[in-house]
Amino acid sequence: MEKLNYQVLKKAGYDGYILPSAPEKVMQFGEGNFLRAFVDYWFDLANEKAGWNGKCCLVQPIAPGLANMINEQEGLYTLYLRGSQAGQKVDDKRVISSVSRCLNPYEEAGFNAMMELAVSDELEIIVSNTTEAGIVYDPACALSDKPASSFPGKLTQVLYHRYQAGKSGLLILACELIDNNGKELQKCVNQYIDQWQLEDGFRNYVNQACTFCGSLVDRIVPGRIRDPQEVAALEEKHGYCDPLLDVGEVFGVWVIEGDPKLNDVLPFKKAGLEDKVFVTPDMTPYKKRKVRILNGAHTGFVLGAYLAGYDIVRDCMHDETILGYMNKMLLEEVVPILPLDQEDCKAFAAAVQDRFNNPFVNHELMSISLNSTSKWRARNMPSFLEYIEKNGKLPKCLTMSFAAYIAFFSNDIQELNDKGLVCRRPKGNTYVCSDDRWALEFYWEHRGDSVEDLVHAVMTNEQMWGQDLTQVPGFEAATVENLKKIRTEGALAAYASCL
Fold it and tell me: Is the N-terminal amide bond of 23 cis, ω within 30° of 0?
């Protein structure tokens, strides 16, 4: 069967939106599954709904990449957005035509093409997602490298070439999953300006003519379909084969931090996507919303749910007790203390239930359990403490989630080995707790403690929590009672006691 390209797509009779040609307005560092299911999808919608008439030229951030495959398909690929919305199964297909080509800057022709695009009058935006390790300053990079090995080094080369050609500044949108991603990227570029002893005029160009924006991205992208039978069935249905086929969840939000005037530059508001992609002067509340609601829900229920016998998130959403516990935690203990529009937060929480109930994603509870000590501290403890400050009492579900955390790391401990702390589940199988080594060693050392002594030791461990949690009135006694309930009656009964 023929690979996807414009001619093959036409022969296959595809009747969806397609834009065969348009100016390259975006240079995108990163060509992987996430950006293609997220950023390029939004630009594709902007072409259809707002007549943006733009293409994204992709650049491989590292030497091995997808450039050849993408170029063979003339930038086209099939995207499936799959999941659950308002309890209904969704499986939407769209052929994305917002990508023009992909450059490999580690080849001379690709490097030259990148620098040629850098000075284009049509170029407006640079987007990046080069993983958490991508925004780093590497002093080994030189201006004369073709290309610089680090992404910030390449970006500095691109911007300097554009500056020397007398072209206007660019809007730079960082999507890497690190704090202050836009500011950190700008900081790295300035470090290269110092190291490479570039002129003050270029420094002014970078820091005044160009606009670096941080952003928060939120979409789960499994990427590939791994079942060969399903792949074969889709190829038969499509009338072409597509090794670049991508899969993401239906939910998607892109929060861009910057002056709201950027809405006039970006096409998303004009495309009617302002509830999905929007600019805000401060994205901190939205990050807090994601961490406290989405991530906090995960950490808040999965450890007890695993002890109760569940293995994947979706199955938990079909248990009335766990679902009720999660929703009570979110709607009564987390959402009311967030500094955002309450209806918006409730809608986000409702979407979380749909996302966790995704029929296409088997999200394992054990994968979520990784580093639960730091996760509970970052995701749940702030909600816990702020709830007490506001209401003068303990939040039942968040309090129980702390006991479930202790139970998970102390349930019939078997051994401590190179892989982690081995515990035994109530239904008989062993499992490996993965966390910071010092945290695992702590639980191993306290494996013979009584419930009272263990809870006291955990709560007074300031390396874990940054404070002594026994100072929170009533928390220690409640946790002792909750942990005993989990151990004697089971985690499900303990969760039910919160409802």
Answer: no
Length of the chain: 499
Q: How far apart are CA 340 and CA 326, in angstroms?
A: 20
pTM over 0.90: no
CB-count burial class (<10 Å; 0-12, 13-18, 19+) for 277: buried
The whole-angstrom distance between residue 75's C-alpha and the CA centroid of its chain comes to: 24
**Mean pLDDT, each 10-residue run in order, the chain (499 residues):** 96 96 98 96 98 97 92 98 87 97 97 98 97 88 97 98 98 92 97 98 98 95 87 95 95 95 92 95 92 95 98 96 98 94 92 91 90 94 97 98 98 96 96 95 98 98 97 98 98 98
Domain boundaries, position 341: 284-496
**Dihedral, CA atoms, 220, 224, 227, 232, nearest 10 degrees?**
130
Are 4 and 241 within 8 A, CB to CB? yes
- Domain end residue (candidates: 253, 280, 307): 280
405 occurs within a structural domain: yes
Report strand pairing: 430-433 vs 420-424.
antiparallel
DSSP 403-463: HHHHHHHHTT--EEETTEEEEE-TTS-EEEE-S-HHHHHHHHHTTT--HHHHHHHHHT-HH
The residue to which tokens 């309450």 are assigned = 342
Same domain, residue pair 290 and 272: no
Q: Of 120, 216, 220, nearest to 168 (Cα)?
A: 120
Instruction: Decide: 382 and 293 in contact? Cβ < 8 Å.
Output: no
> How buried is 282 (Cβ within 10 angstroms: 0-12 exposed, 13-18 middle, 19+ buried)?
exposed
CB atoms within 10 A of CB 77: 24
User: Are 207 and 77 contained in the same domain?
Assistant: yes
Gap between the Cα atoms of 183 and 322, Å rounded: 40
How far, CA to CA in Å, does 318 sit from each of 60, 61, 88, 191, 496?
42, 41, 14, 52, 15
